[in-house]
């Protein structure tokens, strides 16, 4: 099919190239030979009158013109997929849909495992690709690389619809044998004890409690920095270190590790775990069904909310 002289099949090739940034991988993702993909690149360059891609080693680097085209091309292809290709009635028990979800390992443990348990019988052929949260999560939705984001609401943008799943709060955890960890933890004890803290992503973003402490000018003795909340309980066992993690995660680990959970001596605000999806998926039957599954399972963890 052509539109104003452009073979629309070339947009599929262009999208694959911009996503993979590698000619061989892009060709493989479309089941094309490398000569066929090279020919597509030549035709794209001729149509747009731009190089589009510059080779640096084995990686394709986008030109400014290609960067401009990236989002519109991805959005156009998503529109076609949702409006034309994916409008059949969605039957979970028969579907082989693969959902791509970006979420933290914390939410994988306390929430998503419940989803998997339910779908084992309800939708056995549905599969999932779970990705870590990027430093800019909204970019995953904009590029069409994720069907859902699951993370604290304060990290979500206003560019796409979202809904609350459940609220959680932070607690202090330590080894059960840690005599220094009193049930009535004082502020002075909390800031002076050795802490294991989590920082996230390539930019090493601080965790929720770190944002709060920095905002109030409170410093503590940080002994170990790890990549995620789920690593904290393992780093405090057999030591006098403490950590600050979500209550739902602390309760999960309390059943399998010798942990002690105590209230924090600071008024940390509750936070809301939420789900967000691309605006283009708002009326997609499969996305609607998956959201309903999320909301149902969120009831088992905390209090669900309404779509924004």
Q: What's a concise summary of this model?
A:
The protein is α/β, with parallel strands linked by helices and 308 residues long.
Explain this structure:
The chain is of the alpha/beta class and 308 residues long. The chain has 3 domains: 2-85, Orthogonal Bundle (Arc Repressor Mutant, subunit A), CATH 1.10.10; 98-167 and 271-298, Periplasmic binding protein-like II (D-Maltodextrin-Binding Protein, domain 2, 3-Layer(aba) Sandwich), CATH 3.40.190.10; 170-262, Periplasmic binding protein-like II (D-Maltodextrin-Binding Protein, domain 2, 3-Layer(aba) Sandwich). It has 11 helices and 15 strands. The chain has helices at residues 9-20, 23-29, 34-48, 64-85, 105-122, 137-142, 187-192, 208-215, 232-236, 247-254, 285-298; strands at 2-3, 6-7, 53-56, 59-62, 98-103, 127-131, 148-152, 162-168, 170-175, 194-200, 205-206, 221-226, 242-246, 259-262, 271-276. The strands form 4 sheets. Strands 9, 10, 11, 12, 13 and 14 form a 6-stranded mixed sheet that branches. The longest helix has 22 residues, at 64-85. It is elongated. The model is unreliable at 303-308 (pLDDT under 50).
Q: What does the radius of gyration come to?
A: 23 Å
Helix content: 25-40%
CATH top level assignment of the largest domain? Alpha Beta
User: What is the overall silhouette?
Assistant: elongated
| CATH fold label of the largest domain | D-Maltodextrin-Binding Protein, domain 2
